[in-house]
Amino acid sequence: MSDAALKEGLAPIRDRSLSFAVPARDVRGRVIRLDASVNAILAAHDYPPALAQLLGEALVVTAMLGATLREDGGGLTLQAQADGPVSLLVCDYNAGALRGYLRGEPDTPAGDLAAMFGDGHLAITLDPTDASERYQGIVPLEGASIADAIEQYFRSSEQLPTLIRTAMAGDAATGYSAGGLLLQYLPRGEEGRARLFAEDDGSAEPEDWQHMRTLAATVTAAELTDTGLAEEALLWRLFHEEEVRLTPGPTPTRGCRCSLAHIRDVIERFPEAERADMRGPDGLIGVDCQFCARVWKIDA
Q1: CB count in 10 Å sphere of residue 76
Q2: What are 124-181's pLDDT values in tens digits?
Q3: What residue segments make up the domains of the chain, in order of their start?
Q4: Does the model's pTM come out above 0.90?
Q5: Residue 243: how many CB atoms within 10 A of its CB?
Q6: CB proximity list for 41: less than 8 A, separation 6 or greater
Q7: If DSSP codes are grouped into helix, strand and coil, which group holds residue 141?
Q8: 3-188+205-254: what fold?
């Protein structure tokens, strides 16, 4: 997109995914805005503010990673399990469809990952496509936020320098707005080229990455959550001296995959004796979906 188009921006879409690249700097990234989707997901449970903030920002990270890494299909799941006040967090992305749920103590205070989760781990799972196999990476729940833990995952496991910024504003009464910015340096460049940079071999941080990381780090929480600020205009503010190429991504939506047909299909795979044990006094099998806080009654 031209500098003029970047500067002027477009009318913002409240739920939106926009990828960008700066080829001259070997950098790629994504901007995500969540509005209706994050409000629908959080409304399924009466989360206190600290837990709503945690889940909202995790949903932003999941949407950015899913849209960036899974353009060939499949899906991505972010799951944290721990022994602290928050014992479980699950976010799932598939072709724009986003869902999430967490289990935590109502009086959990806002804090870093150690304070909220205690001892635990964070798993990133890439579900298979026709051309790939299932992959899972696991990192400790360390740092100030889910974004910090994911940055560490990319540095240590993928050797991919990454900057992630997330923010969420609002409350349950007025509605939430969440947003995020992802920036990554591509140390291998194009396929077949030599590695440009790897932190683990003592290489100096490239000037291109230093420059772009410094610019991206100036983004504010208010800019990320301002639904009146078009994503193109935000990128202009950050990178107006660069040639930025834009590619619209899938519009994020709330997308729980439970349905009567799907649940019935799963239940009917159980032997009749086991289904009999599942039935309640009304003769129906109740299936509780934590993602959408709905109990399905199945006659099977």
Answers
A1: 22
A2: 988 765 556 778 888 889 899 999 999 988 888 778 899 999 999 999 999 999 999 9
A3: 3-188+205-254, 260-298
A4: no
A5: 14
A6: 55, 59, 98, 99, 100, 254, 291
A7: coil
A8: Hsp33 domain (3.55.30)
